[in-house]
Amino acid sequence: MYMEFYEKVDGLARAIGVTTSTAKKYYLLFEEHGYNFKRNQQGQLLFSQDDINLFKELMVLKNEKGMTVPKAVKEIAKDKVITDTTDITDITVTTEDITVITNSVTTVMTELEELKKLVKNQNEIIEKQQEDFKKQFLKQESYIKDSLEQRDKTLVSTLREMQESQKEIAASLMEEKNNKKWWQIWLR
Question: How many Cβ atoms are within 10 Å of 26's Cβ, its own excluded?
Fold first, then answer.
C-alpha cells in the first residue's frame, strides 16, 4: 500500500525556503485561480509532494524576467487539471496505520524487555556457575596442596627411617667387626 505524506503550511514553507506568511500568500493565490488543496477533517490545509513541487515550480518561474508571482501562479494553475476537491479521508487510514505501527512497536518493546530479562537471568546463572567453578577449583587446589604436603611428609619420614635403619645396620656391622678376633678378620 502506498502511503502519501502531507505537510502543513509550516512544512511547505520549509520545503520551498520561504516564511510561513509567504507560503500562505502563495497558496491563497493558487486557490484564487481555482486550484484546490486538500484539507483534513478539521479543515487544515495539507500539501502533498505534488503540491510542494507545484510551489517549487512557482519559485523558479517567478524569478524569470518580467514575471510576477500572480502571473506565475496563473500560468502554473492553468496547466494543472483540478479534479480532486474532496477532504482527505486517508488521514483515518493513516491513523489506523499509525495505530498498527504503534501496536507493533509496543510488541517489539515488550519482547525487547523480555529479552533483556532473559539475558539478565542468563548472566546471573553464568556468574553463579563461574563462582561455583571458582569454589570447586579452589577446593581442588587445596586438596592437591594438602595431598602433596602429606606425600612430602611421608617421603621425608620414610627417608629418615631408612637413614636410621642404615645407621643401625652400619653400627651393628661395626660392632660385629669389633667383636671379631683379629685372626677372623684376615680369614675372610
Answer: 23
Residues 38-42, mean pLDDT to the nearest whole number? 88
Q: Which CATH class is domain 9-88?
A: mainly alpha
| Averaged pLDDT, 140-154 | 94
pTM above 0.85, yes or no: no
Phi, psi of 114 (to 5 degrees): -65, -40
For the chain, the domains span: 9-88
